[in-house]
Write a structure and sequence with these properties.
The two termini are 32 Å apart. The protein is α/β, with parallel strands linked by helices. A hairpin with a 5-residue loop joins β6 and β7. It has two domains: 8-181, Rossmann fold (3-Layer(aba) Sandwich); 190-400, CoaB-like (Rossmann fold, 3-Layer(aba) Sandwich), CATH 3.40.50.10300. Helices cover 36% and strands 24% of the residues. Residues 407-413 have low confidence and may be disordered. α4 (76-82) crosses α6 (107-114). The strands form five sheets. An eight-stranded mixed sheet has the order 12-11-8-13-16-17-18-19, with helices on both faces. A five-stranded parallel sheet has the order 2-1-3-4-5, sandwiched between helices. The chain has a two-stranded antiparallel ribbon with strand order 6-7. The chain has 15 helices and 19 strands. The relative contact order is 0.10. The chain binds ligand PMT. Ligand PMT binds next to α10, α12 and β16.
Length: 413
């Protein structure tokens, strides 16, 4: 599976001779389908010009912390939020020390401090500098903070010496960055996700539906596949490509979606109901196109099955996560749904007024019995990963208490 496709890689380039290799790195990352933006330190611009990275990334290169143009478009906070991964390559001994110290007096240091995504560095320096106790301690500190250290390699160095301290080759860094997305935390799990709208037919040419694009559900399916799960995605009518490694079942109506979900549920350990399922459908859809008639018309609706509630009510229900799409009193309404549908977790979002539906970003407030957490506005891709981290933590704590049956338990039942 190409895990880099569509990923946002923020490349930090610091002032070392290996900066020339980072130009090739940008090219290779983009060839894998990643979107790349580049932040350079002042020292880095002495080795390679920003224009080189601009041409290769197809994006403006960011160099200044206080840049009026950049602040109004993509300042350090926006850059940090945009990134799925911050990769600093090459990372000099000085920049590593600045990361440890928590400095924020240049753009790249400030981006690092503001970044809550994955961070990786590719150290590049003279072998004696790499072996210095100060650098060793700094690397240990960053490792303890969750920063991934990629390399360095051993071999002939620009200074003429030979030993550890060479930056990894671009191809090795591309593989290592792709690996950062393969967390494996859901390995062995069967995840069933619903996404998109449903369409409830009035007649052969008209239907009732809603504004769901499917993006949130597809992002969750993709993130679950990245996390090592076997993923089935039951999707209403949307215009999105199937995420890599995901089995997709297309449906149209709420009744179709209900049937498809129930068909898969016995093998499911985690059910995430992201679809905007129509609560009602026309009572008697017409077999022929309804003709225009004089005067007012009324439409009789009947309730659709509630897929989420039906899954949660099963005797061996999987860990069940719902969404709540609300226009007001978001958290209160979500809490009511959490309790009424007897589910394990609910992710609430505001919809309408250009929020939630059919956008690239979203913000969630996640609730579970005895806890809650807000997930700040971010791309749906990022939010999906954060939500899965929360689900995974809660899923494991409930499984430990024996309140959900892990998949192997179902298989042997
Ligand atoms: O698709 P996007 O454009 O990316 O937009 C994302 C989203 C706004 C659709 C998504 O984030 C979201 O909020 N999905 C849930 C939409 C919804 O129908 O919410 P609800 O509050 O009406 O339903 C509560 C829960 O019950 C949901 O998990 C829903 O999937 C489920 N449900 C509802 C009705 C029904 N008949 N069956 C259900 O399973």
């Amino acid at each position: 599976m190409n895990t880099l496709s569509g990923k946002h890689i923020l490349l930090g380039v610091t002032g070392g001779i290996a900066a020339y290799k980072s130009a090739e790195l940008v090219r290779q990352l983009r060839r894998q389908g990643a979107e790349v933006r580049v932040v350079m330190t002042a020292a880095a611009t002495g080795f390679v010009t920003p224009l080189t990275f601009q041409a290769l990334s197809g994006q403006p290169v960011h160099t200044e912390l206080l840049d009026a143009d950049a602040e109004s478009a993509m300042g350090h906070i926006e850059l940090a939020r945009w990134a799925d991964v911050l990769l600093v390559a090459p990372a000099t001994a000085d920049f590593i020390a600045r990361m440890v110290a928590g400095r924020a007096d240049d753009l790249l240091s400030a981006v690092y401090l503001a970044c809550d995504s994955r961070v990786a560095i590719a150290p590049a320096m003279n072998r004696v500098m790499w072996d210095n106790a100060a650098t060793r301690d700094n690397i240990a500190t960053l490792t303890g903070r969750g920063v991934q250290i990629l390399g360095p390699d051993e071999g002939l160095q620009a200074c003429g010496e030979s030993g550890p301290g060479r930056m990894l080759e671009p191809g090795q860094l591309v593989d290592a960055v792709a690996e950062l997305f393969n967390t494996g935390v859901l390995a062995g799990q069967h995840v069933l996700v619903t996404a998109g709208p449903t369409r409830e037919a009035l007649d052969p040419v008209r239907y009732i539906s809603n504004r769901s694009s499917g993006r949130m559900g597809f992002a969750i399916a993709a993130a679950a596949a990245e996390a090592g799960a076997q993923v089935t995605l039951v999707s209403g009518p949307v215009n999105l490509p199937t995420p890599a490694g995901v089995q997709r079942l297309d449906v149209v109506s709420a009744a179709d979606m209900h049937a498809a979900v129930m068909n898969q549920i016995a093998a499911t350990s985690l059910f995430i109901s992201v679809a905007a399922v129509a609560d009602y459908r026309p009572a008697t859809p017409s077999a022929q196109k309804i003709k225009k008639q004089a005067g007012e018309q009324s439409l009789q609706l009947v309730a659709n099955p509630d897929i989420l509630a039906d899954v949660a009510a099963l005797p061996n229900a999987p860990f069940t996560v719902g969404f709540a799409a609300e226009t007001e009193q978001v958290i209160d309404h979500a809490r009511e749904k959490l309790q009424a549908k007897h589910i394990n977790m609910i992710a609430a979002n505001v919809v309408g007024d250009q929020q939630g539906f059919d956008r690239e970003d979203n913000a969630l407030h996640v609730l579970w019995p005895g806890g809650e957490q807000a997930l700040a506005r971010a791309s749906k891709t990022r939010l999906a990963r954060q939500l899965l981290d929360l689900i995974n933590r809660q899923f494991n704590s409930i499984a430990r208490e024996g309140k959900v049956i892990p998949l192997h338990g179902k298989d042997s039942a």
